């Protein structure tokens, strides 16, 4: 849990110094001794500055040799240096009385450079030290190693002796050791022990630990041993050597005091860690530190040096070939410099470190690096987890790291609890502002950097303890003296007002939050006693607000559980207190409940890592005293003990408790997590004990609840310990979310120039997480506890990543078993598949696992999960269409292309039934990409050859059997029955061009033409094959025949399915789905509607169709007093509006609801569009068009309107021309601005104040998006000639001009008498319905009821119109529009531009034809709309109201005028 941050600092050394040999710190880690070949320097830690240096002269170096090793005296008053010629040089370090401080801070004379901030002043007094050579001792032998114990030096010589020197230079001869007289054995119980008899065997390195109880010795021949004795005096007659078995290549050693571990470095770049067996006294292997091939593929060389961190939670290790690494206590890799990004600079790729040591609290790692031209002194900054020194922080779900001057806090995964302010203590104003401030980083995955104020850190460095409260709102820190706390909610620090009170106590036992109070164990310097102090958060920091409880000994560990406080002191006593808040006060009562002596469980109080109070028990405790009989979980040097308490008499109100025999739960434990309270919906996860054991992985002590109604077996345990591996180092456990949070290192290289100060990589710390649910499920299934695994999984089904957890479970088992080289006696995959089958995400889990696995492993997977065909069919039966689409990719690799095409066709049909447009679009693209000639065997090396190694089948031809195979399996009812196979034995492009005339009456030749033309260019008269632009096919081998006909057959299959579903939607009156269908699937809606206007597009009941549209589009029914499209609002809402036309002056229209004003307000609604979007009429074949209608661009309204007139031209028979404009907006119309009461948009004369929306639309407005969709559909139906649907849509939109256009379109020659009759019947039915059932439509229907008489006159002239039909086919002429302008100059009017599909011809050259009537149209000057003949509506002029009235009354006159022109008879 140590992580390097920032750049490694390169400390500047004097150039005159020789190569650096070693760096060693003193006991309090404030001073550092830097040893070179000829000098000894003393450095200060914070700030990092040299204090004094002593350099030996050349003559002295020749006499006694160069410097090799250095060692501090425990009180830092002396140092000893070992030379290469076997001399001990003693130095005295003293403080000079002449100088108060070594460095004097002076400001610059320039006023701009003077310091104004307190942070720029160094408040730490750097002492003026003097380093004086005292004396020397000639040992007359080589000195490979030296170590200090208490007030003596243990010096190992090359003659096989261990000499004991006092600091005055005298030799303690009685306690010197001779290896030839020390007995060595494998443990302390063996009676036969043999000394070393070989010559030239000596100790090359020796380390000492009083808590381990001996010395770790490395011999020069590679063997290693542990030297121990019955007393710490180490009498030579009592010393015994314990061999480290299996170790023959040891290079160095390091001892961990707190966890009592002995680590030996090896020549094979590994490290082996031993612990002392308390039963036999021998050394047993705890774990091994091995660098995996994933971290570094190779051997970086022998281990040169190792150092444990001050708290014993991390091991720094360096290799001879270069590189350093950090490992946790029990062997989990935290960082490796071999994985750093060094760019192209290979010389910097490895740090060749020869010596290293830790700084105070482990915030820095000092290193000596071998480099040219001289060695460098590096300092690597660290951040660490607070659990290393403050184990109570493991109970919270927050992740935060502490550095020497900052905190890295991450609260993103605690969104439910984070930043919920305390209402009782925070004002409403601060709540609102702080919530806004914290919202930016509550959901972020970045660290929140909390900088420790310089006012506190300058005098209290280093920071020792940090704590975050359970809500994640407050942070408390404690340094050298005193403490401070910070509010993340208000972003303010709170320090002691009286600095003297801050300096009066030192926090020694940790710090924690309990509700709104800060509890800490400290030592009172003034009164020289240990105390427990409780400070309230809300008051200012002062001793008069603190609750002080005296402690009998130094407090080492603090922890809390609910309303209990647990303390552990240096006298090995665990004390449990009760915390109670006094009523009507801000004070806390601290009542001692119990004291437990655990001196028998630990060798020394410093070996206790953590103590936790919990309600977890090995057996269920029945009785009313369960809450009071908490259990203790004690971590002693990595061994986890459970001490249970049992009530003596549960019936009594106040009875004593007795302690049970401690139970060892696990060993090699680094961290412990347990939930504070249990949840009924997830009892397994919230009542479990979570342990991390380093290289041994994660362990969970999981409860097993018996089934309901089953008798609990006496032989079955109530809990089970489940191990599993992790990919991250855990820092927090989210019990209910089944997630483990951690952190990991990464590096960034800023400069590859070796001469640059930034040539070393920049270290980053990133938060990471891992799901652990699948690991627990796998372990339970392996132990045949599937029911308990099912209970745990069922409680987690609401997690968003639950399917992912099941996928991980299946994937890991599959990878392990499928890639196993040997036989698997008890395969787990069938059990895992059976377990996942119990959940509805089974099909999704299998296919997602298969798609993320190699194809070679698929046979093993589907041998247990089932055949892909069967799983695909299950997806269809369960309507899991997206999952079925994923199985298509499996089938494509395992089955022939014909099979995958068949299943894709099935899925496409089902997707269209369920309106899955995006899926259908992908399936169409998938089908078009399948090459019909591609019959190569699938790529499957692990499958039997006789199954997939058959000869290639011939290309698929579109005959009757294929159509029956592909389409006959679709159990879909059709709206109308017709055969797709009887009349099409062979389908090809040349045959499709010679279809019969659509007017012959048979719909099938017309249908064949439409199907083939689906891949042709739209808007052209001829049918041109363009299949390459429509399909993306695989490359087929050359020489294949009938590829063109096969491609046409594929298009025929797909288009037949699409047209059948379009027909069904149209007959079911699902126009919204039809529009979305056409928009997503590139369906040519206008062309298809033309072929279906006499069949599927027929409407038998217009009233029913109108009701369907109301429900389909969620369109509100109008109220009774509603105005309609094309008429002005009521007099109270109408305003006077001026309109200006081209070449005419503006006029004012009075706001009176007279007939004349209603006629003046008749408008033709034209959707505004971008000129660049003009394309072929009514088709959705452009890939650039959006698929789902929305309001994206606002069209600006303008009060200046153009009043124009339009003349209708009969629909000609030319192939590319359309009845409406050549511009058709996409199904995604443009958004209109909200209509202001003073500004009215073209085609929408209304005001926002009208309250005419139905009861289900409380907003009072018609849906904007739906209006655009309906108007676009109206345009398509008009262009296709489907007048019945156009009439219903016009009535729905209450658009009078659209109704007039529909009735005028009924006059054209291509409209049959049946259509006109159905139009008349539909208008009559709607009129009756509006008068009887829906009065909201009454006014509108009364305004357009005269169109019934127009349709009657069309019917009365039906025989003459029918007689002229044959003439229209030969002349191919059409009636044109002439313009009459009232009071304007004709020469100033722009000419009408012909349609793009017609020959370019000027309007003047065309013969003047009789007018059909004049309609007043309104369009904005900026409109780019196109007239019915392809010209701009802006070029048309306005007509007078009298002329418009005369034209409308034309249908009511008794004499009807019949105009014959170009074969068309129009009345």
Helix/strand/pairing category: alpha+beta
Q: What kind of sheet is the major sheet?
A: 5 strands, antiparallel
Overall mean pLDDT: 75
Number of discrete helical segments: 34
Per the principal axes of the C-alpha atoms, what is the gross shape?
elongated
Plain-language structure description:
This protein is an alpha+beta fold. It contains 34 helices and 66 strands. The strands form 19 sheets. Strands 1, 2, 28, 29 and 30 form a 5-stranded antiparallel β-sheet that branches. Strands 15-19-18-17-16 form a 5-stranded mixed β-sheet, with no helix packed on it. Helix 14 packs antiparallel against helix 15 and helix 15 (917-929) runs parallel beside helix 22 (1071-1081). It is elongated. Mean pLDDT is 75; it is low at 413-443, 620-627, 935-1043, 1121-1260 and 1360-1467.
């Amino acid at each position: 849990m140590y992580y390097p941050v920032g750049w490694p600092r390169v400390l500047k050394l004097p150039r005159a110094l020789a190569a650096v040999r070693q760096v060693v710190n003193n006991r309090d880690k404030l001073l550092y001794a830097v040893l070179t070949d000829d000098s000894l320097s003393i450095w200060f830690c914070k700030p990092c500055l040299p204090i004094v240096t002593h350099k030996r002269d050349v003559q002295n170096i020749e006499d006694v040799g160069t410097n090799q090793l250095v060692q501090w005296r425990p009180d830092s008053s002396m140092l000893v240096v070992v030379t290469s010629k076997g001399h001990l040089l003693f130095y005295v370090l003293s403080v000079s009385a002449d100088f108060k401080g070594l460095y004097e801070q002076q400001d610059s004379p320039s006023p701009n450079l003077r310091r104004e901030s307190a942070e720029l002043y160094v408040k730490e007094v750097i002492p003026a030290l003097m380093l004086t050579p005292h004396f020397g001792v000639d040992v007359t032998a080589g000195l490979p190693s030296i170590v200090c114990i208490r007030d003596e030096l243990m010096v190992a010589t090359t003659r096989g002796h261990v000499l004991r020197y006092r600091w005055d230079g005298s030799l303690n001869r009685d306690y010197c050791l001779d290896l030839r007289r020390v007995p060595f054995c494998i443990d302390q119980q063996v009676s036969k022990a043999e000394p070393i008899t070989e010559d030239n065997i000596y100790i090359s390195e020796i380390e000492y630990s009083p808590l381990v109880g001996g010395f770790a010795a490395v011999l020069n021949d590679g063997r290693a041993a542990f030297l121990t004795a019955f007393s710490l005096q180490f009498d030579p007659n009592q010393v015994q050597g314990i061999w480290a078995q299996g170790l023959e290549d040891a290079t160095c050693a390091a001892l961990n005091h707190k966890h009592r571990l002995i680590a030996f470095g090896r020549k094979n770049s590994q490290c082996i860690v031993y612990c002392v067996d308390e039963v036999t006294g021998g050394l047993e292997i705890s774990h091994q530190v091995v660098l995996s091939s994933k971290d570094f593929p190779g051997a970086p060389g022998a281990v040169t040096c190792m150092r444990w961190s001050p708290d014993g939670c991390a091991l720094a290790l360096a290799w001879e070939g270069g590189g350093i690494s950090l490992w946790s206590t029990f062997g989990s890799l935290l960082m490796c410099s071999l994985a750093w990004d060094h760019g192209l600079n290979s010389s910097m790729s490895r740090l060749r470190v020869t010596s290293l040591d830790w700084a105070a609290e482990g915030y820095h790692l000092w290193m000596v690096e071998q480099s040219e031209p001289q060695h460098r002194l590096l300092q690597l900054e660290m951040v660490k987890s607070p659990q290393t020194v403050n184990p109570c922080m493991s109970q919270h779900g927050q992740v935060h790291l502490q550095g020497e001057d900052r905190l890295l806090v991450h609260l993103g995964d605690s969104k439910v609890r984070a930043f919920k302010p305390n209402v009782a203590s925070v004002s409403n104003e601060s709540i609102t502002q702080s919530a806004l401030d914290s919202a930016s980083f509550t959901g972020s995955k970045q660290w929140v950097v909390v900088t420790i104020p310089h006012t506190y850190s300058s005098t209290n460095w280093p920071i020792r303890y940090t704590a975050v409260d359970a809500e994640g709102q407050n942070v408390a820190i404690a340094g050298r003296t005193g403490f401070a706390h910070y509010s993340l909610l208000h972003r303010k620090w709170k320090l002691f007002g009286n600095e003297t009170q801050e300096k009066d106590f030192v926090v020694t036992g940790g710090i924690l939050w309990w509700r709104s109070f800060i509890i800490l164990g400290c030592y009172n310097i003034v009164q020289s006693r240990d105390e427990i102090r409780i400070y309230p958060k809300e008051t200012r920091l002062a001793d008069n607000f603190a609750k002080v409880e005296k402690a009998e000994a130094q407090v080492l560990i603090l922890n809390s559980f609910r309303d209990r406080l647990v303390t552990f002191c240096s006298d090995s006593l665990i004390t449990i207190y009760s915390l109670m808040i006094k009523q009507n006060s801000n004070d806390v009562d601290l009542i001692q409940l119990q004291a437990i002596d655990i001196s028998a469980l630990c060798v020394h109080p410093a070996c206790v890592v953590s103590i936790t109070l919990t309600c977890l028990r090995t057996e269920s405790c029945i009785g009313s005293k369960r809450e009071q009989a908490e259990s203790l979980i004690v971590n002693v040097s990595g061994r986890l003990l459970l001490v249970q308490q049992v009530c003596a008499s549960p019936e009594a109100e106040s009875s004593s408790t007795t302690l049970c025999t401690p139970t060892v739960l696990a060993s090699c434990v680094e961290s412990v997590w347990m939930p504070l309270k249990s949840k009924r919906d997830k009892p397994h996860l919230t009542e479990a004990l979570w342990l991390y054991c380093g290289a041994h992985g994660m362990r969970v002590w999981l409860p097993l609840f018996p089934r309901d109604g089953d008798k609990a077996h006496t032989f079955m345990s109530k809990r089970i310990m489940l191990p599993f591996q992790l990919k991250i180092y855990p820092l927090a456990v989210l019990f209910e979310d089944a997630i483990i949070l951690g952190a990991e290192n990464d590096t960034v290289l800023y400069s590859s120039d070796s001469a640059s100060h930034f040539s070393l990589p920049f270290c980053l710390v990133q938060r990471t997480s891992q799901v652990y649910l699948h690991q627990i499920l796998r372990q339970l299934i392996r132990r045949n506890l599937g029911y308990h695994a099912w209970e745990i999984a069922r409680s987690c089904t609401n997690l968003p990543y639950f399917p992912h957890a099941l996928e991980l479970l299946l994937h890991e088992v599959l990878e392990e078993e499928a890639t196993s080289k040997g036989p698997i006696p008890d395969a787990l995959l069938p059990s895992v598949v059976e377990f996942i089958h119990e959940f509805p995400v089974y099909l999704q889990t299998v296919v997602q696992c298969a798609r993320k696995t190699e194809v070679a492993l698929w046979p093993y997977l589907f041998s247990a999960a089932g055949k892909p065909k069967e799983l695909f069919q299950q997806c269809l039966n369960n309507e899991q269409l997206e999952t079925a689409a994923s199985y298509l990719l499996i089938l494509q690799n395992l089955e022939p292309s014909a099979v995958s095409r068949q299943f894709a066709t099935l899925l496409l049909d089902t997707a269209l039934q369920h309106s899955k447009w995006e899926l259908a679009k992908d399936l169409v693209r998938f089908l078009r990409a399948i090459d019909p000639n591609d019959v190569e065997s699938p790529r499957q090396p692990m499958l039997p050859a006789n199954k997939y190694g058959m000869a290639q089948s011939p290309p698929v031809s579109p005959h009757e059997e294929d159509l029956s195979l592909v389409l006959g399996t679709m159990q879909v009812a059709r709206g109308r029955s017709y055969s797709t196979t009887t009349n099409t034995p062979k389908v090809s492009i040349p045959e499709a061009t010679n279809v019969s005339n659509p007017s012959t009456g048979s719909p099938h030749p017309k249908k064949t033409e439409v199907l083939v033309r689906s891949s042709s260019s739209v808007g052209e008269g001829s049918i041109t094959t363009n299949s390459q632009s429509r399909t993306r096919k695989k490359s087929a081998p050359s020489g294949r025949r009938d590829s063109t006909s096969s491609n046409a057959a594929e298009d025929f299959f797909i288009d037949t399915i699409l047209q059948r579903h379009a027909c069904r939607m149209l007959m079911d009156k699902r126009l919204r789905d039809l529009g979305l269908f056409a928009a997503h699937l590139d369906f040519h809606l206008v062309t298809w509607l033309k072929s279906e206007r006499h069949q599927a597009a027929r409407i038998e009941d217009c009233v029913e169709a109108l009701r369907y549209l109301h429900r389909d589009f969620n369109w509100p029914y109008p109220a009774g007093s509603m105005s309609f499209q094309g008429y002005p609002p009521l007099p109270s809402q109408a305003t006077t509006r001026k309109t200006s036309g081209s070449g005419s002056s503006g006029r004012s229209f009075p706001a009176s609801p007279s007939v004349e004003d209603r006629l003046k307000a008749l408008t033709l609604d034209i959707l505004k569009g971008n000129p660049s979007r003009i394309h072929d009429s009514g088709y959705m074949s452009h890939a650039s068009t959006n698929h789902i209608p929305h309001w994206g661009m606002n069209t600006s309204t303008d009060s200046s309107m153009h009043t124009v007139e339009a003349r209708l031209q009969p629909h000609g028979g030319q192939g590319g021309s359309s009845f409406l404009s050549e511009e058709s907006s996409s199904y995604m119309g443009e958004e209109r601005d909200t209509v202001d009461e003073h500004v009215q948009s073209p085609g929408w004369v209304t005001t926002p104040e009208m309250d005419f929306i139905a009861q289900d639309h409380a907003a009072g407005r018609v849906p904007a998006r739906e209006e655009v969709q309906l108007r676009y559909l109206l345009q398509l139906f008009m262009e296709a000639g489907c007048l019945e649907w156009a009439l219903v849509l016009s009535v729905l939109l209450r658009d009078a001009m659209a109704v007039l256009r529909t009735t005028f379109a009924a006059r054209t020659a291509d409209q049959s008498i049946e259509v006109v009759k159905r139009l008349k019947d539909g208008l009559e039915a709607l009129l009756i319905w509006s008068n009887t059932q829906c009065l909201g439509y009454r006014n509108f229907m009364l305004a357009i009821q005269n169109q019934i008489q127009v349709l009657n006159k069309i019917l009365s002239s039906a025989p003459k119109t029918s007689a002229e039909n044959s003439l229209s086919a030969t002349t191919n002429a059409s009636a044109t529009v002439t313009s009459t302008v009232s009071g304007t100059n004709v020469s100033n009017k722009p000419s009408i531009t012909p349609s793009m599909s017609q020959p370019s011809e000027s309007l003047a050259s065309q013969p003047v034809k009789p007018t059909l009537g004049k309609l007043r149209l309104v369009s904005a000057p900026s409109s780019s709309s196109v007239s019915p003949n392809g010209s701009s509506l802006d070029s048309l002029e306005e007509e007078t109201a009298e002329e418009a009235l005369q034209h409308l009354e034309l249908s009511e006159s008794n004499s009807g005028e019949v105009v014959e022109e170009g074969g068309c008879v129009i009345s």
